[in-house]
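Batch job 17 of 40 flagged for manual review because the log was empty.
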Amino acid sequence: VFFIYNFVTNFILEPTYQTCFNTTLQRLKLDPRITVRLGNDIVGYGQESPSRVQRQQIPHELYKDANGTEHCRLQFNMRGPGGVAIVNADMSKDSSGSWDYLYLIVDVKSGSSPPQRLNIVSPK
């Protein structure tokens, strides 16, 4: 039973944090502020580590606010030919079931230029 539950929740039903990660990564791959700094061949991963398992695990927090709204807070890394970045995002589920950003902030280090903070979606 445990094996079947894990298989269904991890491989058939995409976990909430994975949906939020995929949505955020796709959005950032299309953002010209990111592609001009990191390049077009961008990959996203969990933690900066030589361990494949740690790179595959996306640090996240699922919680509900005082109004009962579901939130997903993410922090992950991105890498492209032009540099690296750390992404911080907080998303909330609206009444229609879609995820909206409360904030989306990217700290970019590209080439020899100083690190830059990009507010893709400013905190509300």
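Reviewer: the log was empty due to a logging misconfiguration, but the result itself is present. The radius of gyration is 16 Å. Unflagging and moving on to job 18.
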